[in-house]
Amino acid sequence: MRLSRYFLPILKENPREAEIVSHRLMLRAGMLRQQGAGSFSWLPLGKRVLDKVCKVIREEQNRAGALEILMPTIQSADLWRESGRYDDYGKEMLRITDRHERDMLYGPTNEEMVTDIFRSYVKSYKDLPLNLYHIQWKFRDEVRPRFGVMRSREFLMKDAYSFDLDFEGAKAAYNRMFVSYLRTFTRLGLKAIPMRADTGPIGGDLSHEFIILADTGESQVYCNREFLELPVPGADTDFSDDHGIAGIVKDWTTPYAATDEMHDEAVWESVPEGDRLAARGIEVGHIFHFGTKYSKPMNAKVTGPDGKDHFVSMGSYGIGPSRLVAAIIEASHDENGIIWPEAVAPFDVAIINMKAGDPECDRVCAELEAAYEAAGHEVLLDDTDQRPGAKFATTDLIGIPTQVIVGPRGIAEGQVEVKRRATGERENKPIAELLAQSGAKA
């Protein structure tokens, strides 16, 4: 992709309305356009990152056995009345009426709709377990949306819903999602710590928030430093092995970890002082078992092996991809801009033409672009006529992991400069070597 043909509306100054780092950098880097309170358009650079986040989420949901569907954004109020939530949800729900005077709503979540889908088709325990997920836009009419996409009114959500015959099956489904989340956040370049969350009237202990540590985090968290060294399950994880998956969950829930709301000072005091880590954190995922809360009022049941009807035991599992983009920035940036983990970077390589229009610079840039792309890397070539300082500032701001700097002096010596955004490390590389490696990143 040539920058001269790309839509990248960079802002030189920090927007006054942006209160936190991620909001400032997303606006400055041309990722977003704010359309209203808590409402944003995702511009080309931001959309590329959002799509990559969703790709990782999809791959790990699929790996864990969840099946992707797509449910509407507009839902019938009748389903919510059936579950008993329509009048209880509050003003965050955007209620609307269609031309036939039917009560509708813009979905803030999808428990009712997915339960309706389930009860329409699944009648026997032989069709269980089942986990259905989708990645869809949600709307919650926040009284005070703030912090950009970190707390917006319209947001993208991956929400999954599991259906099982009984609690034991539901617990196994919960554990699979727990491990799937560990893998997802690690692949996104984040160290997420599962912390026990309040289950409300449901009771029990099957509810966890996944928290990343960040100085700009919204809440205070407390955890054992042991979490920083715990091994994350690999790509060869067998999600059909319930016992093995349960063992992983046990390892990741034994050390102390709690948000401020769930913090137990007495238990915290029992953690060795050198192992205590008190910090700020950002929630990036939440998993929750709610049993028959929806299956009973909505009559979602299956015939069990005993020949009797059983209301299915359910759970829900959420990750906000749009919020996650901001969380990644909060955890990975410096004074010059964003530092993207490679898995979600909008481009893998930025080639900076220091003298656009110079025949040799143009030739070498084009050859490097072709070589990197042939090797499967996504390239942004800065072929604009901006001054070098502006080019460097833009490339650092948008956070592309590898920068290849091409100038007349280097070409005369048969070299280009390669910079790693994350470390700032610079190295001169022979042009022939980069081309011979077919675009392999330095």
How many helices? The count is 12
Share of residues in helices: 25-40%
Shape: globular
Gyration radius from CA atoms, angstroms: 25 Å
Q: Report on the biggest sheet.
A: 9 strands, mixed
Arithmetic mean of pLDDT: 94
Instruction: Calculate the terminal CA-CA distance, rounded to whole Å.
Output: 20 Å
- How many strand segments? 23
Structural class: alpha+beta
Low-confidence stretches: none
How much of the residues is beta strand, in percent? 25-35%
Structure overview:
By secondary structure, this protein is of the alpha+beta class. The chain has twelve helices and 23 strands. It has helices at 21-28, 44-63, 77-83, 111-121, 167-187, 242-253, 265-269, 321-331, 359-374, 388-398, 408-412, 431-436; strands at residues 32-36, 39-42, 67-68, 74-76, 94-97, 103-106, 130-139, 154-164, 192-196, 207-213, 219-224, 257-259, 276-291, 301-303, 309-311, 313-319, 333-334, 337-338, 349-353, 379-382, 402-406, 415-420, 426-430. Strands 3, 7, 8, 9, 10, 11, 12, 13 and 16 form a nine-stranded mixed sheet that branches. Strands 20-19-21-22-23 form a five-stranded mixed sheet, sandwiched between helices. A three-stranded antiparallel sheet has the order 4-6-5. α2 (44-63) crosses α8 and α5 crosses α6. The longest helix is centred in the middle third of the chain and has 21 residues, at 167-187. The mean pLDDT is 94.
